[in-house]
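Next comes this protein:
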Amino acid sequence: MNDGYIKFFRKFTKWEWYHDANTKALFIHLLLTANFEEKEWNGITIKRGQLVTSRKKLAKALGLTEREIRTSLNHLKSTNNLTIKTTSRYSLITVVNWAKYQVSIFKNDQVNDQQNDQRKKEKTTTTKERYNNKEIKEYILSSKLDDTPSIFSEIISCFNKVGIKEDSFTKNKVEFHFKNSESNRELIQGVLDKGYTKEDIFDVVYLKYDQWIENNDKNKKDMSTYYRPSTILGEKFDEYFEEAKMKGIS
């Protein structure tokens, strides 16, 4: 339990309980103490993201009263951050979306530390593992080699291939040739570090293509020049993503 780590994204500061000190402390404590692998306990299976505890134990661990723990647990239950199954002997807490705080930027690369250690022993290093190695992360971000992680090229390809047709505003043929450059990789990495997935980025690209290219004639001015990674993946990405969710794209 003392090994490994969890991930926090910058958008955590916008979480509704962020300014509630007790609820925030409790949630972080549960993330840190929940099972990171499935275990058997007293004849029941405790899955990843779950833990067996009690209000008394939580109060002692956090220096709070049991009443304060109960209030914070109710807060977290009300916003679907966790579920609780209570018996006469214990409470089984499940952290909802626990895996979001554990996964790497590569959505399908959810190996645990033991598997990573084994790979190191076998000296078999894949592109994804090289990228997750902090010592060479900066090198890969700036690399121009073809073995850079495919997530970058996939996202750039989405920008280029989401549609090749006529701009409805300018009536010009639209073709895009954005590059898998260091600056674009840094933009992509910045969005991924905030907790978004490549699918989230795709959704925003589709939205902005629809608004700024395909239906550009509905805008008061030509918006096609804004369809580029530096704009879409910039400081307004959170706003664009929420817009995509509201429109049912995400």
About this structure: The chain has eleven helices and five strands.
